[in-house]
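ingest -> validate -> predict -> emit
validate: passed (alphabet ok, no gaps, 336 aa)
predict: started
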Amino acid sequence: MPLLSNLFGGGRALEACAVQDSAHVTLGAIGDHVAKIQLAVSVLDGLVIDRNELQTQRYGRSTAAAVLAYKKKRQIVNRSYQNAPDDIVGKMTIASLDQEMRRRELRPKAPGDCIMSPPGLVTGPSSLIAPVRRTQGLVGTVGGNAAPKQLGGFIRVFFQITQKASLEDGYPLAAHVEVARNLLFEHGISLVVDFKNGFTDFLPFSARVIHSAGNPVDNVDDIRQASESARPGVPGVLRVIACQMAGASAGETFRKRSISGRVVPPFVLLNSEVNDLDHATLIHEMIHASKDGPVPHDPEPASVFFEFARTQLGKPNRSFLKAEHALTLSKLSSKL
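emit:
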């Protein structure tokens, strides 16, 4: 019988593993099929695997130990020749992993904020504030508009990018950070990027992310679990992942997602396949994360919280951050 989960189904190596003894996955194996096994045991049991093994997609000793722990918990033993579980992924193990992943994929999932946020309605004069110029540390005004209120505080973020997105798309994270940092600075808010192994962590996640609420093809939880495995537990820090995503959305913010039995704080996915000419997707999704739930987008095309990213020349630049959004952004850390 073919494998039924979206994670495992259709993969030649794992389909073979399900029917052939010679295709068992053992210590030393390398490849995308190993990465899927690593993801499954992490998702299902929260098992920790060595970072190097995750990045190289290698069935090393920590992967074998995680598989063994998974099998011991469920007493997966071939009684025809065994008395205790081993650390090999064979027919019984891949069948068990596949069934559990399929059940998990069928659970209802929370949609992204951008999907749920309707277009804004123009109800009065625009509240956009003209840009403010700073000279020698002093706040000035332009065109008679008062300078934005200096709210103070800081926002901490850290970035991850899938190796596939990095190699094929070269997503300009630094440009998005610069835009967000400048806009926040005008309101007295500092943007702090957490570094660990360079500017970004690299995720060995090769699938295109599909976000479709209530649909088993939705694999947002999978990339969030891969993110957690690579860098667990960062309270007070916004987790931002650049990856290849299905559809034309430039990014999405997700909340109320459950990872290893724990509801995680809001996190952001940036679509590496969409070229936002204004590099405003990061600050747009940060605004979503700072709210208590989906809210209407701004009606003004010049606002960074406008519904659509600018992907063509000749359209208005998304370059303004409204004071109301700056206020919730100044409190973002408390929601993480």
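The chain has a mean pLDDT of 87.
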